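no rush on this but wanted to send it before i forget. theres a chain ive been looking at and ive put its sequence and its fold in token form underneath. please have a look and point out which stretches look like helix strand or loop to you. thanks a lot i owe you, the record is right below:
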Amino acid sequence: MNILQQPDILSFAGNVNDFVIEDVTKSLTFKLSVDDAVVVNEVYVADGGMVRVPMKDIVDCFLTISIPQADLDYMIQSLAVKKFKAEIEQTEFEFTVVKGGISNVAESSAVFLKTQWLTLQPQEKRIMTHQPEYLSYYAVETCSVKITVYFPDGSANETLLALEMGNLHTIDVSYLKISGKFERAVGCYDVWVENENGQRLTYVQRYILSPSNTDTNVYLFENTLGGIDSVVFTGKFTEKIQTEGTVTTVLEESTDSDIDLNFSCEQNTGFIPSIDYARWLRSFFVSKQRYHVSGALRRIYLRESENGFTINSLNDFTFEFFYSKQTKYDVVTRNRDDLPHLLEFPEVDSIPFLAPRLAEFPIAVVADDLMLPVQYTFENAWRRISVAAITRVASDEAIDKIDLSAYWKKTELVREELYLKFLDKYIRAKFADDSDLWDGHAFKDYLDQALRTTDSPEFVSLLANYLKSKDFVSGLSGYKVGKDTEVETLKVRRFLEVVEYLVNQISLIGDEVILTEGGEIDSVEILENGYYKCELREESVRAGELKVGDICMTDFKLENGFRKIHFEITKVGNDNTIEVYPEDPAYPPRPLMTFRRRGNFTDETRQNSIRLSSHDQIIEMLSGVNSYDVTWKNRDILIGKIKDLIPEIKGLPERARQKATFFGQNMVLLGNIFQVSADGVTQERVPCYKGLWTIEKAPFFYYDQVTDGYCRYTCVHEGEEGTMEEPRFDSDVWEVADGDTALNMKMYNNTGSWEFWDRLDILFDASVEVFAGNKPINNLVNEWEWWLETGDAEFDAAWKADHGSRTDTQHVDGSTFPTNIQASSPVLLWCRARIYNNGKTNTSEGYLNLQ
């Protein structure tokens, strides 16, 4: 194996080299890891002794550019730079990849990153006061961002930011941010990067303030270099609304049952000054992140755009875009431009601020409809916000998240006459302070007290004493609220947690259960690139149960019914949160979703699970589940109706798929097994087959089955210690399961012949072979009996006395026949074999015609 090409130590994602390996015999194993997680583990087959592993598409999907928050001076793009480790057989390579790419492949990524800002915008750029503006730079070495600002009466130099080596920084260089640092109006300013020796690394980027124009529109976008640019379009801006109604006619009257809204905007760029400016704008049209700076940042998308640039002509582009989030609801601003006449905003050194004249305004009482003037960071326009809105957000974001666990330990709220006392202190109550007001009020008024949010009353005794029904009847038809509570119905909006939950002593669950780790999602936060951050209900999962790479699923109720939803866990936090990536982006995780692990993409120890389904009528044990698709090879054991879950079982009739069946990849059954015929009536026990009988395999137990080379025998010995006896046709402890054991006899004249009438003493032997079926059993014969039938009774009796006790071979000669026998008379030589065993006698006989 020889590596011809590999990625550079530092490179753009769009310019990273492929791995090219030659002298590969058959195949090789390639692994790629990022953030200590294996993302590629494949076997590549050589083509002509060479293997190429493409890298661009693989590494780019792990890199993301984020838009900084408006209040940050800078942001380290930790998701835009990743260190990868490749393993080829036993060789390891490490390399760093930065989001973005360049078209000039003759220049290395490392040199470009060191000497360039990550933008293709004009080097001298005109900006507006409230225009967001960022510069991005990857620090190949330790360095600093320097700035020179120009005032009407001079200039000033300052170090804007010290950059950490190995990080991609996005620095806010917008006009208001820079002016705020010097507390003076700035005319223009230059920004560049220097190393620790004072050597300038990048070109000087200059920003010049331009007059604001209400007809301009500002857009923010991710460029192709991994930076963030903003652009101002001065051309015509048009909002277009297209509606289409769904008409329903009932009793000849037609009405709109629903309205489909399609809201889009058309923007003209205005004059495009140069071909380089047009090429820079190309990044806007191919960007995966675009925002319209309209108050806040609103994400937009373009369906299609065709723009051309002609040299020596006046050029402009027109495109249509849509907001990513749209709604048919709207709001009207009654006073968009005019400000109240008492509120002035003069310019002091061209820096806008509130004049110190608030004392001239009337004093306002705190109320929900009290309005305050506010501005967005990137907007030169005033808006209003109510105290009620601020209070609601503060309550949702702050008060609801206060940890009150320490207060809940205070357990006593008592009533003393008409007052409530908490920890022996009276609580002010609008009813308790005036006994007259208390008369005639309901209990809900009693609870309407002015308690602090930090107070923690316990209502156990209060409820037990006052929340009762005079018509209470204990039992199924009654209700009572107290220490022991009975109610007709109970609705809980989030979840109910109890020590024990009994419903008629039967646990009720849905139609499918997966027995693995899992949890319940409490809230969901949308991240970038299709990822979601899920906060889990604390009681639903123990620490360490969930791992990166877990394949999770749930059967969740949607608007159109239940649907199976799958997602992968990509990160497990220490704050009871996980980050996930859904299999289908159309079905992301949602609050209240209960999920279970079904497998894991990489960890073999987490690829097992057990599933019980009443819908499929099965119990299955799964292993090796490393993808969203479960195949029959993952089903180690399946109990129930096979149906189409196991595609191919040779010889299995189709009707068997609809019956309850036991399937196992490697089957070991312990105990007695009975097989039922297809007629549903016949039932036979399945024996345990042990092969050819040998004494070394003894003892044998009830329903063990063996062969003796000729027949199959089933053991019927019921003793606990088994039997050592060899199977045979006349055994009391063995029954013939297959084969013939009936006794039969064959007789042969082995040698010789004679001339009967010449009485020549030419000898031959008559032999006998006894069989139990096809098995020779001469060795089992205990007694042999021979006799002749010549027609001469006296001769036959004498012959038997002399020769009748021979074994399995009888000598035949001239003396075997009487002297007076006639030539046509038959002479029969008979033989009988007797076998004695366990008090039983078995016999077999046959004859040989000697004439």
